[in-house]
Amino acid sequence: MKMTDALLGEHAVFYAIFDNLEKQIPGIESLDNLKSLAELLAAPLIGHAMLENEELFTALDPQLGGQGPLEVMRGEHGEIEGTLQDAANATDLKDLKQQLLRILQVARNHFGKEENVLFPMALSHLGEGKLTALGNTWAEKRKVTLA
Ligand SMILES: [Fe+2]
Ligand SMILES: [Fe+2]
Questions:
Q1: What is this structure's pTM?
Q2: 48 C-alpha vs ligand 1 centroid, how far in Å?
Q3: From the CA of 27, how far away is ligand 1's center (Å)?
Q4: pLDDT, tens digit, 9 for 90 and up, residues 31-76
Q5: Ligand closest in space to the Cα of 69
Q6: Distance from residue 40's CA to the centre of ligand 1 (Å)
Q7: How far from 135 is each of 7, 81, 94, 97, CA to CA, in Å?
Q8: Residues with beta carbon < 5 A to ion ligand 2?
Q9: What is the DSSP letter of 92?
């Protein structure tokens, strides 16, 4: 299995979580409860971005490093990570709601760019063999058994 296929599967789970959060966030009345939701999202979403940074993006660096799409994706990972980590220090409920709803939109758009632009570029630059080897690395890191 190609690593990009594994990452697409992760996106699918995140889309369901984003849908749920977008419904829940407007009605939340406690800053601590909102922070807990942000924390719950932060660990897996930052973990997803780190895996992309460390494995897929690093593999693409020799060909795409310093160029548009890869650097845009890295920048958005930083923005998503920063916003979710800053949530722990938020003091205003309304402001944190806006920040979280905004970053969910950023994350959705980011996923869309990976799916439509970056992952197809990864296939054309790295080929099926390298992406499959990276898929094995994904499985090891995620502790998933591949048949
Ligand atoms: Fe990403
Ligand atoms: Fe992704």
A1: 0.95
A2: 7
A3: 28
A4: 999 999 999 999 999 999 999 999 999 999 998 877 789 999 999 9
A5: 1
A6: 18
A7: 9, 24, 41, 36
A8: 114
A9: -
